[in-house]
């Protein structure tokens, strides 16, 4: 039994190491690169999924990596754990701001908390009044918080139009990871785009989870696959997956059913690890979180911090669609026309 | 060997009692047939072809397997008297080790490694609860908190910073089998004929493109029933869950049998995890178990701590989950016809048996189902996703008096005490 006990102790120790060992920032010792601006240390807290989700978080990670390489700043990022509480998120932000990281970027609406006035970010911003914060996709209002928000509906409009133009069956699908206002924006834009391109197109929609289940639908590839298979069985031939990590399940279903899918946030044609899944990804709705993160840090460095919302839309290339794989090359003219109309304001894309 | 015979004689008596309440094969077949006719009626009345489509049945089977395996895990532990609320954690270990093993050594060894991962989780729980007498709930919760941390750490050192939360795609999967000729039922299914198309859909869903792991998992249900109720080993495991002192007085090493139960429990949950990461999807993803361990535990309670019952529970939950995922709430909305009818029938039955409280509450629920059916076109997603939990609550409320957990379930046991 003593051996077993020792093993148990070892495993417990391993677990606690894991709890604090998942940051990957540079150690402060590497002064050579940070010599010029060593006072600026950028902290970033990921959403559930973190680095390696091949989607939303990876886009933020790309921005942070650019900050590190192009601006020569010291960076540190911390990952979130699925199922954690709001207090854990608050503790993460506070850890960053109290250990000298300024600015601090919170990635994902989860940092707003259930009540943005008293959520994790609002509390951390109050505790560290001299630190500048940014939240991607959030709506926390404070004098030291910048809200980096995206016009996802505009990007979704374009991929919706692409889906309708490319569909052979006249039915397309939308799968959202969680039934929240943010993801409903994707659905609204996608539906509007599909109808604008082809008035009689049928759009099927479904969500994998609700906030009551801690939005587990962003991490449920099995659920994504089941939902997508269900839609393909209903004669849909192109499905837009706005479901984070569940998207790979949608791609698997598309491959099995010999159909197509549309990625989200990152250019998922380039981020899927299985090459055979590339062919099913017709395009991806790009949400340039990387640009937002990079520009926010750059502006901060030039003393141009602006509290409140900054919208990244088609006009500023904050959103868009990808062309990797060349499957939408033949309809690019039509999509660019829609894009021009949206930028010019002749088309207003609904958000609900 | 003398322990063996004494024990079997001693426990033969209580084992015989519940058997009298058990359903005969013909009753079970009758219920299955009734369910099929009921679903066919729903299909026609509410124009909901997906309730018996092969796609839905296949998805339901795939959704039910992880729940059933978690339920079996719960069964093995609780039959040995240890509450294993750490099933979720052992499942998480299974998802990670299964995916890692499949990536490194191919699908079959991956399966084995995933099962071992879960079993190690079970072992830790056994060390804490059996050897050190830690409260079962506390140890189980600790397991559920510990597991995500361990796998995050392992992901980080295996796949590096670029993949701390998910694995590369698992390309190599365990093969899928089809019964020859079953694919030709597709035509029949598409005709939408009453009952015939429904049977075709169900058969095709169950027999076409079924992963070998699914077959293995389904076989584990009768295998568990056989081992636990028909072998000396199973009898001993159950005896330490019913009355460990009595078992000890007959010379049984109670600790050892509790260890067996809990380690097998972890292995079952681990297999459920492997199934999630390598069969229903082909990737390990942090948080992908999504509470399935707990729903498995609910299925076990629903099934009255018996393999057959928990299989029914897991199938029900898997079925509603699959319907909901495939068509939003459309098909589940149609199912309300059946649910309402069943509840009203139950109300009449219980009224005749003078169970006023149960009769009235099921009548109210039945009427509510129909009110809901006629007043809305789509059930809110949140309500559908809560369906497994609501079902368990209703079952617990209606049948709690008849549920019978192992007598010493969750109670601390000290040798010689």
TrEMBL record, chain B:
The chain crosses the membrane at residues 27-46, 108-134, 210-229, 259-284, 331-352, 357-376, 382-400. The keyword Transmembrane helix applies. Keywords: Cell membrane, Membrane, Transmembrane, Transmembrane helix. GO terms for molecular function: transmembrane transporter activity. GO terms for cellular component: plasma membrane. It holds the Pfam family BPD_transp_2. InterPro entries: ABC_transp_permease. It comes from the Bacteria. It is a multi-pass membrane protein. The keyword Repeat does not apply. Coiled coil: none annotated. It is found in: Cell membrane. Its main location: membrane. PANTHER family: GUANOSINE ABC TRANSPORTER PERMEASE PROTEIN NUPQ, SUGAR ABC TRANSPORTER INTEGRAL MEMBRANE PROTEIN-RELATED. This is ABC transporter permease.
């Amino acid at each position: 039994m003593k051996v077993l006990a020792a093993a148990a102790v070892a495993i417990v120790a391993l677990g606690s190491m894991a709890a604090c060992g998942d940051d990957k920032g540079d150690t402060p010792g590497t002064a050579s690169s940070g010599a010029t601006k060593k006072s600026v240390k950028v902290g970033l807290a990921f959403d559930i999924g973190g680095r390696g989700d091949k989607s939303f978080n990876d886009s933020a990670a790309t921005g942070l990596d650019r900050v590190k390489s192009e601006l020569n700043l010291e960076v540190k990022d911390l990952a979130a754990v699925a199922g954690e509480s709001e207090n854990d998120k608050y503790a993460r932000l506070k850890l960053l701001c109290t250990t000298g990281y300024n600015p601090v970027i919170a990635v994902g609406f989860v940092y707003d908390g259930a009540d943005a006035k008293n959520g994790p970010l609002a509390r951390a911003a109050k505790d560290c009044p001299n630190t500048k914060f940014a939240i991607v996709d959030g709506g926390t209002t404070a004098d030291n918080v910048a809200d980096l928000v995206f016009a996802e509906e505009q990007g979704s409009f374009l991929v919706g139009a692409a889906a309708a133009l490319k569909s052979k069956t006249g039915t397309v699908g939308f799968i959202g990871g969680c039934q929240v206002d943010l993801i409903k924006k994707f659905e609204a834009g996608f539906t509007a785009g599909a109808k604008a391109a082809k008035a009689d197109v049928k759009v099927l929609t479904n969500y994998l989870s609700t906030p009551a289940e801690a939005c587990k639908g962003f991490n449920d590839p099995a659920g994504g696959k089941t939902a997508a298979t269900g839609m393909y069985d209903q004669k849909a031939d192109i499905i837009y997956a706005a479901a984070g990590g569940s998207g790979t399940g949608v791609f698997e279903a598309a491959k099995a059913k010999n159909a197509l899918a549309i990625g989200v946030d990152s250019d998922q044609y380039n981020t899927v690890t299985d090459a055979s899944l590339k062919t099913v990804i017709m395009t991806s709705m790009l949400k340039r979180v990387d640009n937002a993160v990079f520009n926010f840090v750059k502006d901060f460095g030039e003393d141009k911090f602006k509290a409140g919302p900054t919208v990244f839309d088609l006009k500023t290339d904050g959103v868009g669609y990808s062309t990797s794989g060349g499957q939408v090359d033949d309809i690019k003219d039509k999509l660019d026309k829609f894009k021009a109309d949206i930028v010019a304001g002749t088309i207003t894309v609904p958000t609900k | 060997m003398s322990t063996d015979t004494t024990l079997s004689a001693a426990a033969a008596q209580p084992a015989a009692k519940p058997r009298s309440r058990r359903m005969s094969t013909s009753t079970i077949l009758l219920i299955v047939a009734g369910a099929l006719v009921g679903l066919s009626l729903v299909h026609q009345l509410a124009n909901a072809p997906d309730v018996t489509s092969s796609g839905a049945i296949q998805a339901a089977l795939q959704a039910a397997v992880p729940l059933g395996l978690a339920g079996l895990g719960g069964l093995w532990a609780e039959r040995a008297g240890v509450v294993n609320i750490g099933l979720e954690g052992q499942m998480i270990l299974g998802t990670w080790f299964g995916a890692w093993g499949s990536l490194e050594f191919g699908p079959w060894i991956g399966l084995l490694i995933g099962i071992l991962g879960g079993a190690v989780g079970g072992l830790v729980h056994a060390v804490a609860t059996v050897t050190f007498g830690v409260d079962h709930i506390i140890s189980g919760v600790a397991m559920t908190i510990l597991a995500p941390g361990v796998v995050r750490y392992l992901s980080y050192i295996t796949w590096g910073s670029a993949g701390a939360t998910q694995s590369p795609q698992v390309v190599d999967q365990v093969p899928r089998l089809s019964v020859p000729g079953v694919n030709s039922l597709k035509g029949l299914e598409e005709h939408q004929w009453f009952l015939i198309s429904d049977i075709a859909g169900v058969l095709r869903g169950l027999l076409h493109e079924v992963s070998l792991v699914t077959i293995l998992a389904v076989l584990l249900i009768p295998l568990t029933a056989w081992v636990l109720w028909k072998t000396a080993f199973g009898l001993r495991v159950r005896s330490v869950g019913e009355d460990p002192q009595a078992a000890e007085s007959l010379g049984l090493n109670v600790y050892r049998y509790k260890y067996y139960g809990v380690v097998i429990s972890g292995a079952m949950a681990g297999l459920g995890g492997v199934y999630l990461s390598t069969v229903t999807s082909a990737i390990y993803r942090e948080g992908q178990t999504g509470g399935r361990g707990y729903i498995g535990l609910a299925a076990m309670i629903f099934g009255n701590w018996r393999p057959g019952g928990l299989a029914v529970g897991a199938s029900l939950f898997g079925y509603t989950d699959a319907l909901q995922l495939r068509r939003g709430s459309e098909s589940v909305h149609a199912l309300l016809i059946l649910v309402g009818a069943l509840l009203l029938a139950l109300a009449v039955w219980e009224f005749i048996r003078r169970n006023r409280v149960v009769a009235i509450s099921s009548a109210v629920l039945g009427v509510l189902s129909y009110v809901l059916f006629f007043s809305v076109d789509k059930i809110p997603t949140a309500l559908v996703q809560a369906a497994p939990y609501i079902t368990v609550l209703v079952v617990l409320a209606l049948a709690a008096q008849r549920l019978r957990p192992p007598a010493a379930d969750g109670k601390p046991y000290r040798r010689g005490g």
